[in-house]
Amino acid sequence: MTLITDEAGGPAMTKAAVGRIAQFVSLLFGGVFAGFVTAVLVIELPLRAFDRHVYTQVRKIELVGLDILAIATLVPAILATAVLLFVAVAAGGRRRWLTVAAFALLVLIFIVSLVVNVPINSLQLTWDVQAPPPDWADVRDRWQIAHIVRTGAALLAFAFLSVAALSRVPPSSRGEAR
């Protein structure tokens, strides 16, 4: 059994316990994030049928608190999955590769968000509902394409984390005698 030690060198928590906690947190926050971005997509896609004024008004409403929710769910999912990755690498097997894939997807989501979605969100907050910019549809399309990528990646990451959680751990990784 691998122990994680405290500052005095005494046992603080087993690696398996840390792994179980990280798994719970990554599934919880990864699942909430995947559900959240899916719900936003369900709102966004029908908006394509509306004019620039309606789109801008809805986006301004969406942006009131959704960025905070995204940060509050994605960041803990990434951090917990990073801890889980540390444990899974030692365990080996299918669980390791599923966790690596989930972590890579979560990092991809973070990068796409920072590079595409967040700058567009900031720009859209400055738009006037009565007079959106002439290129509003192009901006909308860029945001929605990036959001579809994020949503697909979030759902896939959650699926990988779920399958990894259901995967059997080899006996040598559970701290049992070999």
Question: In words, what does this structure look like?
Answer:
This protein has 178 residues and is mainly α. It has one domain (13-167). The chain is 74% helix and 4% strand. A hairpin with a 5-residue loop joins β1 (3-5) and β2. α1 (15-44) runs antiparallel to α5 and α4 (93-125) runs antiparallel to α5. 28% of the residues are buried. Residues 174-178 have low confidence and may be disordered.
Task: List the SSEs and their pairings.
Blueprint: E1 3-5, E2 11-14, H1 15-44, H2 52-62, H3 66-91, H4 93-125, H5 136-166
Antiparallel strand pairs: 1-2
Number of domains: 1
Shape designation: elongated
- Number of helical runs? 5
- Percent of residues in helices: over 70%
Strand order of the largest sheet: 1-2
Condensed summary:
With 178 residues, this protein is mainly alpha-helical. The chain has helices at residues 15-44, 52-62, 66-91, 93-125, 136-166; strands spanning 3-5, 11-14.
Features:
single chain, 178 residues, mainly alpha, two-stranded antiparallel ribbon, 5 helices, 2 strands, elongated
